[in-house]
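Most newcomers find our protein records easier to grasp once they have seen one. A learned vocabulary of local backbone shapes supplies the integers on the structure line. An example says more than a description, so a record of this kind follows:
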Amino acid sequence: MTGILAVNHFLTGSKFNELHSHIISAAEKMNINLILKTNLELALKEETADFVLFWDKDINLAKRLEKRGIPVFNSSRAIGLCDDKAKTFIELDGIVPQPQTLIAPKCFFKSDMSKFVSQAAEILGLPLVFKECFGSFGEQVHLCGSFDEIINLITEKPFILQKYIGESRGRDTRLEIVGGKCVAAVKRENKNDFRSNVTNGGKMTPYTPNAKEIKTAVTACDTLGLTFGGVDILENGMVCEVNSNAHIINIMNCTKIDIAPLVLNEIMEKIK
């Protein structure tokens, strides 16, 4: 069995190299020949494989691989829904609990959003959470206490505004779902930031989720079409974010649960 581990050519550094090496090592132990290829390499040359483990967000590339009949995990559709926070909210709306969210109207360049922002602030209250639709590791996410703070963050990039859940400040739960089952979970806490992300200084501890949290996370992944994913749940049980390719090394170091072989085994089951 030969697969491709698709990663981003432009995301480099020790944490990415460690993750990629770990996944390839896990594949070797399962007698899977998993070959590392970047999205730059795959953009220039057509490769063949039995499957692609797509650890990136280059949705157009994922679609091209699927068009050629190669099974891609996660699928381009699922990655696209997770990558865009507005699309994530829309897809999950009415299916799992989420913070009240308003999606900024589409514009093609930096525009006057004062009317939208002022009315959104009345609806959601202040402070509120500003999120660019695209971003990872808690970047492009801000807690705004005033109209001017929000306005100063707006560029031509799409964004959403969400009601701030104060009871969950700096705290959430990450559930890792593989094949419709919760395989690992951690509690994350950051005492110095409203975001719980480890990248921003948060700490994680092993956690045993309750049945309601598991059901919410599994439903979110199923709805988005994810074979595997990381679901962030706030203290009040609402889904904050869903990740199509969460960084699994931190969770493994915390829980001692290696998610890589679980993901690979699930893929093997699907392509039999």
Notes: The chain is about 35% helix and 25% strand.
